[in-house]
Specification:
By secondary structure, the chain is mainly alpha-helical. It has one domain: Growth Hormone, Chain: A (Up-down Bundle). Helices cover about 75% and strands about 0% of the residues. Helix 6 packs antiparallel against helix 13, helix 9 packs parallel to helix 14 and helix 12 runs antiparallel to helix 15. About 60% of the residues are buried. The N terminus and C terminus are likely disordered.
Length: about 400
């Protein structure tokens, strides 16, 4: 399935291309998967801390290592997809692993199996993310690329709204029965994998498959200076943002009742979902770097509010800005990766991009947990503010898109 446009009508005007069916399918699969994942993630930091007695530093380390694992796997999954010239099998395997991992959470009696399940879940995410984004890029016309990535991101994030809402409902009705919540979370993940297997089609087109795995020094150089500027800047931005687990812990720290803590993810992801699609549409019609800069400013404001907050309402205002930051940056960054990387290396480019951001996240998670335990949450968010300010340089320097790039085959 490849990107296409409607036939040219008699008056000679060319209508705008339609968003391909594949993008909608991948969006709905992402929605179901995020319902499953966010039902768990919205309560997992509190569950580990209050029920299992795990320290904040350990929680930050677990989240960081899990995300770094996903980042490493993304490099290889993207490169293998480029080598094969086909991506669907990797996407199916990735969603399948994430679904299966959810069955461990209700049965775990100690933190170790939960840590292992988080690793398996992130391996699944790593396997699917780069090939999925390469599928979208191949299936979508360039003039609606930002809109397509924004739509998928918006549907994905709607799942991250419904998941925590379900978590609040289940915990409220069952007097905080975490095991029942974990069992229910297993169901939408399985449905997502079934939808993907039965409905999604491999997009055809693009250049011929590479004849070797594209992870050589020559390939990394062929990604181009514009790509590396974006990738390094995004890693710095990720370091400034840190793990979402700190939002949950900060909400509890500011006095939010445990059963209501998932409302943090509901608010953040509702703002994220509402912004992602219109921002994607807008990014096809203006300089994307302006939207990126605005998103970074939103993160700076969020970190500042979370640093000075003394009660839950100021903290929730910071959460709103955090969600706006995601909506303004994530789809735009994905589109900039496609804009700046050669078509035969797009899977590899998404993998390298994710690898750098993943290592920034594991560093931020581990150091952030230590800073929290030693100096408190305010210090953590002041440091995050400084890193976010530095990442503004990514949006200010005009990138030169790839033009003509020779890729070794």
């Amino acid at each position: 399935m490849s990107a296409s446009t409607d036939p040219v009508p008699a008056n000679g005007t060319i209508p705008a291309p339609r968003i391909p069916h594949l993008v909608w399918v991948l969006g709905w699969v992402s929605l179901l998967t995020d319902i499953s994942s966010e039902m768990i993630l919205a309560v997992l930091p509190v569950y580990l801390g209050t029920v299992m007695g795990v320290s904040t530093a350990t929680i930050g380390l677990i989240e960081g290592v899990a995300e770094a694992t996903a980042a490493v796997v993304r490099v290889f999954s993207g490169a293998i997809g480029d080598r094969l010239g086909r991506y669907k099998a990797l996407v199916v395997l990735g969603y399948g692993l994430s679904s299966v991992s959810k069955i461990v959470f209700p049965m775990a009696g100690t933190p170790l199996p939960i840590f292992a399940a988080r690793i398996v879940d992130r391996v699944g995410k790593g396997l699917r993310t780069s090939p999925r984004d390469a599928m979208i890029a191949r299936a979508t016309a360039p003039e609606i690329r930002g809109e397509a990535f924004g739509l998928r991101q918006s549907l994905d994030t709607l799942g991250a709204v419904f998941g925590p809402l379900l978590a609040i409902l289940i915990l409220g009705l069952t007097h905080s029965d975490f095991q029942l919540l974990f069992w229910i979370a297993f169901v939408p993940g399985v449905l997502a994998t079934l939808v993907l297997v039965r409905i999604a089609e491999e997009p055809m087109g693009g250049t011929a498959p590479l004849t070797r795995v594209p992870l050589t020094k020559a390939d990394l150089a062929a990604l181009g200076r514009a790509f590396w500027w974006i990738a390094v800047g995004a890693a710095l931005l990720t370091f400034g943002r840190g793990a979402k687990a700190f939002l949950v812990l900060r909400a509890e720290n500011l006095g939010t009742p445990i059963w209501l803590v998932p409302i943090v993810f509901v608010i953040m992801n509702a703002v994220y979902a509402a912004a992602a699609y219109p921002v994607g549409w807008l990014s096809d019609r203006m300089d994307r770097r302006r939207l990126l800069a605005l998103g970074i400013v939103a993160l700076i404001g969020s970190d500042l509010l979370l640093a000075v907050a003394e009660g839950p309402w100021v903290g929730l205002a910071g959460v709103v800005l955090w969600g706006l930051h995601f909506g303004l940056t994530q789809g735009v960054l994905a589109t900039l990766v496609v804009d700046s990387a050669p078509e035969p290396l797009r899977g590899t480019a998404f993998g390298v991009f994710s690898l750098l951001s993943g290592f920034a996240l594991v560093t931020s998670g581990a150091l952030g947990g230590l800073v929290w335990d030693i100096w408190g949450p305010a210090t953590l968010f002041w440091l995050a503010t400084a890193a976010a300010v530095l990442s503004l340089g990514m949006a200010w320097k005009p990138p030169t898109l790839i033009g003509s790039v020779t890729v070794p085959r």
